[in-house]
Write a structure and sequence with these properties.
Elements lengths: L1 H6 L16 E4 L12 H11 L4 H15 L14 H14 L4 E4 L8 H17 L3 E4 L4 H7 L2 E6 L2 E7 H11 L6 E6 L2 E8 L8 E3 L4 E9 L3 E12 L4 E6 H4 L4 E3 L4 E6 L7 E10 L5 E14 L30
Parallel strand pairs: 1-2, 2-3, 8-15
Antiparallel strand pairs: 4-5, 6-7, 7-9, 9-13, 10-11, 10-12, 10-14, 14-15
């Protein structure tokens, strides 16, 4: 985010130089470029003026900006009255429709609702493919990067660590994010806990095969007792999509007690995941069902291919989806 502010000339660098060719607009966080005391209409004209546009150019785009942002009823309302979602929609619409030659976008789209995010990504694709303009999009959301970008750069500690196609960069980024430990320890507001993934002979490991047994073992060392809590385990794709969920709220009759020395295991008799790698997410909930701990990368679970259906054939992950389900086929001849 700091680098993007430097590129957008919001912050000055201590050393070095930046070379830009073209008109630049940026959307870095909620409210970027918006004066809270000014109306949406006034902010649109202000932003256009700062980008070097003439008033008649801005006026020609006004209706499109307002329609895209969905703020027709609030065009003459001060933006300080807007919700964060409305502010993001307006800011993005201004940046996209006032036709900058370079549009710099941070992960600000995460604030908008799902429908707006879809519209925004569609608009950015239109900007890059139709108008020959550049969108510099920075995100940790690999699904968004995959949908939008054709070329990527992976940054590490302020320097370029990898450059190439989108798929190559995503693979490089995810590979560098790997954690090879099979024991995870964490601290919460209630105290410490640890969790392991165990195979069918109680060995701690990250490597399993489709069809095998897996157990998630939690050991709590809390200072304060959580008399009626819940545990959630999420299995996510490397792009962040939820694949499976195991949750005490839905799979046990009562809430559980999390106390000093408590050991709780979630046993999955048969792994139905297609071969590949997945991130394991862990969430802990108190008696009021509030999340007091969440981590979406506790483990990287690696699933190897196996003859899951006992047919002598290995399912193809490209065509068979993410999970495997056994079924009975009844064939009647007549």
């Amino acid at each position: 985010s700091t680098l993007l502010k430097i590129l957008s000339e919001i912050t000055s660098p201590n050393t070095g130089s930046i070379k830009m060719r073209g008109r630049v607009a940026s959307l870095l966080e909620v409210g970027t470029g918006m004066h809270p005391e000014m109306t949406a209409r006034e902010n649109i004209y202000l932003n256009g003026s700062l980008m070097g546009m003439r008033r008649h150019e801005i006026t020609s785009k006004l209706d499109e900006i307002v329609a895209f942002a969905g703020i027709e009823k609030y065009l003459d309302t001060p933006t300080k009255r807007f919700s964060s979602g409305m502010t993001v929609r307006l800011g993005f619409a201004v940046a996209a429709f006032l036709e900058p030659e370079i549009l710099i976008v941070d992960e600000v789209l995460a604030v908008g609702d799902a429908e707006f995010q879809k519209k925004a990504i569609g608009k950015m694709q239109e900007v890059t493919s139709g108008g020959g303009r550049t969108v510099l999009f920075v995100s940790h959301n690999m699904a968004a990067v995959k949908n939008l970008c054709t070329r990527c750069i992976v940054l590490k500690e302020g320097t370029i660590s990898f450059e190439g196609s989108t798929d190559q960069c995503i693979d490089n980024y995810l590979r560098n994010e790997e954690d090879t430990s099979s024991l995870f320890k964490a601290n919460t507001s209630y105290g410490d806990f640890e969790v392991q993934m165990l195979n069918e002979i109680s060995e701690s490991t990250l490597e399993f095969k489709t069809g095998e047994k897996i157990s998630f073992k939690f050991i709590f060392k809390f200072n304060k007792k959580v008399s009626a809590g819940h545990i959630g385990i999420g299995v996510n794709s490397l792009l962040g999509d939820r694949v499976l969920t195991y949750h005490t709220k839905y799979e046990t009759t009562n809430k559980i007690s999390l106390d000093m020395g408590t050991s709780i295991s979630c046993v999955v008799e048969t792994i139905i995941l297609m071969h590949g790698s997945y991130n394991i997410e862990v969430s802990l909930f108190d008696s009021e069902n509030h999340t007091f701990y969440n981590n979406n990368k506790v483990f990287k679970l690696n699933i190897a291919a196996s003859d899951f259906f006992k047919s002598g054939k290995i399912p193809n992950s490209k065509y068979q989806g993410v999970v495997l389900q056994k079924s009975n086929w009844i064939i009647n001849e007549f």
